[in-house]
């Protein structure tokens, strides 16, 4: 199994394992009121969505193609889900004041980097257009994420009083992370490796 695909599988397993604990061990206080039953379904689906779409498209357009799927890009898209769940497992959202803010910036950098690598591999050009696509997609995903949080647990939770300010800040940080990822993608001269790999092809 190529190393990037191994990394992606490991990210999925670690994420689902922690989600299962959060869902089926309800006595742990750090998971209370955070819709982990919904996350147990949604996170694996979202993590596997891009690989499934790419595999299906490859099968239809180029059946029998020996070219590997872009697992390094998929792995970067998967990283934020593991970071989010791990932050909850160790109760970092409630015990480290800056964790939530840092999480939105860094996770949107990872997510947008993965998406940007896929767009670059798909031939989006020129560079300025690629950068705008990456930053714009990251901004849309940041807005969508906040809408999802509102619907699943904020509107009926304990954070309603500060939700407006917190949501605006999270969206700004997510957009900034996406903008930095856009710069990295358009400035790269060699493929970005998967998380944990010193060097690797995007399609490794």
From TrEMBL:
UniProt-recorded name of the protein: VanZ like family protein
| Residues passing through the membrane, by range | 38-57, 69-90, 102-121, 128-148, 168-187
Q: Which InterPro entries match?
A: YjdF-like
Keywords linked to the UniProt accession = Membrane, Transmembrane, Transmembrane helix
């Amino acid at each position: 199994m190529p190393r990037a695909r191994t990394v992606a599988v490991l990210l999925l397993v670690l994420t689902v394992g922690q989600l299962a604990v959060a869902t089926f061990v309800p006595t742990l206080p750090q998971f209370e009121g955070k819709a982990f039953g919904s996350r147990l379904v949604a996170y694996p689906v979202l993590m596997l969505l891009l690989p499934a779409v790419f595999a299906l498209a490859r099968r239809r357009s180029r059946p029998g193609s020996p070219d590997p799927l872009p697992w390094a890009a998929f792995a970067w898209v998967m990283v934020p889900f593991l970071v989010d769940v791990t932050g909850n497992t160790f109760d970092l959202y409630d015990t480290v004041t800056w964790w939530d803010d840092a999480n939105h910036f860094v996770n949107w950098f990872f997510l947008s980097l993965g998406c940007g690598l896929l767009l670059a591999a798909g031939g989006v050009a020129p560079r300025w257009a690629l950068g705008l696509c990456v930053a714009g997609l990251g901004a849309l995903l940041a807005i969508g994420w906040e809408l999802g949080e509102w619907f699943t647990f904020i509107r009926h939770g304990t954070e309603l009083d500060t939700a407006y300010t917190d949501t605006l800040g999270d969206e700004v940080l997510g957009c900034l992370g996406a903008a930095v990822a856009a710069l990295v993608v358009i400035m790269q001269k060699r493929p970005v490796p998967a998380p944990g790999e010193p060097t690797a092809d995007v399609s490794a």
